[in-house]
Amino acid sequence: MERARSVPGEYEKNLRDIDAPDGRLLQRLRSYGQVRALAVGAFGEVSKDLAVLVHELVARKLGASPEAQQASASVVYTRVRRTIGVAVVRAHAQLLLQGLVYCGPGGAERLKAKRQRKEEDRAAQDALWADYRATFHRSQVNLSGRHVAWRDGHMPVC
User: Structural domain boundaries of the chain?
Assistant: First the structure.
């Protein structure tokens, strides 16, 4: 589960890349607690965070009564595991079925067209963001009447 271990750090890195100089986004993320990596491996193994989540779900479902916990813990564990397992299997099947479009005759062309559309969409989105930033920049004027400049791609703090 190497991927699961890297998820919290990736979230923080991505936020640092777009965050304001005072780190508001990173502070907000940290205020929610630790980022949990809910991951299932190719052979059905689960990350520690997912195992903890299953345990917490079962404990919440059972309540605080020790008698109730002993009597129905295995039934609740089975239900929670089955629900998560079915969701994982369905998601994996959908992933495989979506990939079948690119198999067989004409598959390479469809894949190339998909990648081309994705590139065009990314370029269009970048153009929209550039236009937004230019418009926003023009509208930011400080008290002296001068434009407030963007610093390192971040919104100006007045």
Answer: 2-104, 105-158
